[in-house]
Amino acid sequence: MERVRTVSGKAYPWGAKNVDTDVIIPAHWLKTITRAGLGRGAFETVRAQPGNIFDDPAYAGSPILIAGDNFGCGSSREHAAWALGDLGIKAVIAPSFSDIFSGNAFKNGIVPVVLPQDAVDRLIEVARTDEITIDLETMTVTTPFQDRFTFELDPFRRQCLMEGLDEVGLTLARDTAISKYEAMLDEHRPWIAGETNASIAVEGAGRT
User: Fold this and answer.
1) Alpha-carbon distance 115 to 127, whole Å?
2) Where are the beta strands (DSSP E) in 23-122?
3) Would you call 91 helix, strand, or coil by DSSP?
């Protein structure tokens, strides 16, 4: 997972409320076993409408999405976060998120930024003409017009995002401690080792 310290650039000034995961990525896209290409299916039903914001050249490649309350509700599909990431979105700003979506976003390096509705409304206004910056160091969202909004993020999740650590990365970071623990088991509880268990099983089978 890439490190995320700041996300800066254009933003989709959408603001839609109660956007469920089926809107983010329709169910027929879930047959895939890879994340690559899911961006093509992101917001498929919305993009089927003429003049939609996601196909507007003015916002092409925007790394930030501004949405309304309860973003990511509905089913728990992780494909929703995959689709956003493949679309190039690195952060979503909204007044609230589904808990499961928020967790999936974090695991996939997408920053879920919770701000009050008045701050979201202001950012939607700014995003129509100017860029927005999300800074995880200062925990702020700023604009070129001196707007400065602070947000909160779980300290552990913030650290993981800033260091680029997903679940695999967290495990590898503890490789030394894990190796020491396994060595201790080999010394003090040798019967736990797979090879020993296999030998016991073979010996037991020979006695029957």
Assistant:
1) 15
2) 64-66, 91-94, 111-114
3) strand
Half-sphere CA count of 101, side-chain side, radius 13 A: 28
Cβ–Cβ < 8 Å for 114, 94: yes
Helix H or strand E encompassing 150: strand 148-150
Tell me the per-residue pLDDT of 92-150, one tens digit each, with 9 for 90 and over: 999 999 999 999 999 999 999 999 999 999 999 999 999 999 999 999 999 999 999 99
Q: Computed from CA positions of residues 190, 193, 199, 203, in that sequence, does the dihedral angle turn out positive or negative?
A: positive
| 151-177 per-position pLDDT tens digit | 999 999 999 999 998 765 556 666 787
How far from chain centre, in Å, is Cα 162? 13
204 to each of 58, 111, 178, 194, how far by Cα in Å? 72, 54, 31, 15
